[in-house]
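User: Need the bound-state model for zinc ion:
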Amino acid sequence: MGLNRPVIFLGPPGAGKGTQAKRVSACYHVPHLSTGDMLREHVRQGTLLGRAAKPIMDRGDLVPDDVVLGMVEERIARPDSAGGFVFDGFPRTIPQAQKLDEILRKRSFASPLVVNFRVSNDTLVHRVSGRWVCSVGGEIYNIYEHPPQKPGFCDHDGGVLVQRSDDHADVVRERLVAFAQQTQPLIDYYRAKGDLDEVDGAAGVEEVSRRLHEVLARHGVDGNCAQG
Ligand SMILES: [Zn+2]
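Assistant: Bound-state model below.
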């Protein structure tokens, strides 16, 4: 059980890293960590960090690194993190990565294995712009991969399906360009340390899962876990 080193998944929105992080989390019995979830938990519980973050989030601003890293440090100090963890979409910048390295060293964790999910922009635009959400129950459909039985309406409650403005193709494409620019230095940083590998995220969920386990095994992350 557990991972012998922390794992970090990087990749653009729509690359499927969240789905794979959930699977690795279930398979190895390690927590799946995202800073978005951490922020929401701290705000809900009214912790000091949560109270620092809330007004900033309410304004729609980016929560500063010291608050985010404070949450990360607190989270990986909990007992359920002792067997490793999977970070999904964190860190985002080199200063965050350097601070995370410091925290991991302090807690005697091995250096993280970073897996970059590679998917072409065309595939991502296709995936994300196919996403429609039920206006009643919030169910998510993809008109290409998981279409509703009756076009435009939810299978569960008949609600009208709507597309979030963020998911329009031109908005998605702009966001991907910005993401690539922001993330490239981070990828270079981990590659220079020898901690980076890649997985082709363009295939289906099962195939990506299989390839991901090969990558983990190649880097000495114990591959013995019941998949499912
Ligand atoms: Zn619905």
